[in-house]
Amino acid sequence: MADARESLHGMWSSRLAFVLAATGSAVGLGNIWRFPYVASENGGGAFVLVYLACIFMLGLPILMAEVMMGRRGRRSPINTLRELARESKASAKWQIIGWSGVTAGLLILSFYSVIAGWTLSYTWTYLRELVIPAVEFGSPDAVFGALTSSFGMLVFWHSLFMLMTLVVVSAGVEKGLERAVRFLMPTLFVLLLLLVGYGISTGYFGQAVTFLFKADFSRITPAVVVAAMGQAFFTLSLGMGSIMAYGAYLPSDASVGRTGAMVAVSDTFVAVVAGLAIFPIAFAHGLDPEGGGPGFIFTTLPHAFAAMNFGTLYAIAFFSLLSVAAWTSSISLMEPIVAYMVESWNVTRRTAAWMVGGLAWFIGLGSALSFNHWQDITLFGRTFFDHTNFISSDLLLPAGGMMIAVFAGWIMPRADSREEMSALADWQYQLWLGLVRYVAPVLVFVVLLSVSGAFDFLTAHV
Ligand code: TRP
């Protein structure tokens, strides 16, 4: 490559384009579907407090490390790591970070597309109800059951979503990714504000605020900390190279610290606002906010939509919002892998996108089957869907994040990381360095331990 200041794949046209794209990656099913129910299951306020601490002590430093490394390498995560390892006179084995990211990305994309398919299906169902008044949504549990028990329907929506994703990725950085997020992110923002407006009008807004922000410190347990950390990772798209790949297209004069902080703050803002939109609705309709579970928005919120004036319109807004958010996240799951193939396999972006999409689609069939024909085929009590979810989100992401923190903090010469982050004040750089060197690796190690079950033993004896 002739000029290391430009990536082979093109560049974001501005710093704002990067912030939109990275925020698009971060904001997804994790914020709007996962955050509310995980927060509710972990006691609301106590969880939110720890989650916020994790975002800024663990998430933001690793996010900055990914942007910094991506921009310095200007390639896909795998080749960026090879390049940076060479520059740092370290072992080429550090490329493992890139490979673990590719594996995690394929697995996450495979089930993410299945769940995003549910949101597409719900949008469609409500649209039909709007257009054909005789068609009614029906009982939420029945609708959810009918969808998930039909392998054919799941595959149809999964295929459609995967197609939407690969069309954007094959169009490239400026014509695909950037154009999509420029239009989709403001749309998402407007839809979200609309829903908060309804939340306020229910009269239960104050109750939702109390639930989310009144920290009951006695409820902060190790399990809550672990859940908060895992959520911080997933929601910021950390540990697999999405952000690193996007960083490769960031202009050299943009500040890593400022753009990184903007992404972290926007993502947190959306999660909190989504909570403020969803909990008042739950309270207003007498739904148990602590008993949501993963089916929360699919089986519970429709009860609320059915009872509201203009509920169908709100439902369409809500589920199209979620589809859009999932879409801008899934393109970031595909991009690092496609970029690697374009660099190293001498294929076109289009071919690479179809290959990655095809493979992820195929693996996703296993997840689609997990809700019907394979429901009872389990290993260690987990379905195929549970395994892909667990291996990628709970194992590969924390491991990747920890390696990224170690590489950025211990392997890269300080002069290099300092050069990429020259806009930071000295104390800010020192703070970042301390966080990636000591705090992040230790905290993530604790998450990995807890995942392995060692924590259950500890907590059982405290
Ligand atoms: N952050 C996205 C969400 O909250 C999902 C996502 C996109 C992701 N890219 C990622 C998660 C990379 C982990 C790693 O829905």
Layout of strands and helices, then pairs:
Elements lengths: L14 H12 L2 H13 L3 H29 L3 H11 L8 H36 L8 H10 L1 H20 L2 H29 L3 H9 L8 H14 L6 H6 L8 H29 L11 H12 L3 H34 L4 H21 L14 H28 L2 H7 L5 H26 L2 H7 L2
Helix pairs in contact: 1-8, 1-12, 1-14, 2-10, 2-12, 3-4, 3-9, 3-10, 3-12, 3-16, 3-18, 4-5, 5-7, 5-14, 5-15, 5-16, 6-13, 7-8, 7-14, 7-15, 8-12, 8-14, 9-12, 10-18, 13-14, 14-15, 15-16, 16-18
Describe this structure in words.
- The protein is mainly α and 462 residues long.
- The termini are far apart.
- Tryptophan (TRP) binds next to helix 1, helix 2, helix 10 and helix 14.
Summarize the structure.
The chain has 462 residues and is mainly alpha-helical.
Mean pLDDT: 88
Shape: globular
Query: Could you tell me which ligands this complex binds, including any ions or cofactors?
Result: tryptophan
Strand content: under 5%
What order do the helices and strands follow?
Answer: HHHHHHHHHHHHHHHHHHH
Rg, alpha carbons: 21 Å
Distance between the termini: 56 Å
Query: How would you classify the helix and strand content by structural class?
Result: mainly alpha
- The number of strands is 0
Uncertain stretches:
none
Share of helix, binned: over 70%
